[in-house]
């Protein structure tokens, strides 16, 4: 059973940066496409970015395009989300998720494994 653990969240000022990490265990990360999602209070979970199993294909939602970068290091079983130029509206719990297919997907129903999330708070 694949397990995912996110880290790197915290409190940052507007315009600041954070790098989230998602470490996988119980499986070979290179067999999974990965997505990053977030859920703000009172809102539905939304997809932010995804990356194919070998990293050759990435996708971003318009609200984070140009500010967030997804990457992966399969040798370290770790996926990253570099977040720059953060805004108060980026405040949310951030989740990584995995699907046992090579292709990236932006729909949360396509993902089988989820981490517990890490809180990101951006102060104005």
Short description:
This protein has strands spanning 3-7, 10-13, 18-25, 33-39, 46-51, 58-60, 68-73, 78-83, 92-99, 113-114, 118-123.
Structure description:
There is one protein chain. By secondary structure, this protein is mainly β. The protein has strands spanning 3-7, 10-13, 18-25, 33-39, 46-51, 58-60, 68-73, 78-83, 92-99, 113-114, 118-123. Strands 2, 4, 5, 6, 9, 10 and 11 form a 7-stranded mixed beta sheet that branches. The chain has a 4-stranded antiparallel beta sheet with strand order 1-3-8-7, with no helix packed on it.
* Regions with little confidence, pLDDT below 50 for 5+ residues: none
Distance from N terminus to C terminus (CA atoms, Å) equals 40 Å
The pLDDT mean sits at 95
How many strands appear in the DSSP assignment?
11
User: Quick one: overall form?
Assistant: globular
Q: Which helices and strands appear, and what pairs or packs with what?
A:
Layout: E1 3-7, E2 10-13, E3 18-25, E4 33-39, E5 46-51, E6 58-60, E7 68-73, E8 78-83, E9 92-99, E10 113-114, E11 118-123
Parallel strand pairs: 2-11
Antiparallel strand pairs: 1-3, 3-8, 4-5, 4-9, 5-6, 7-8, 9-10, 9-11
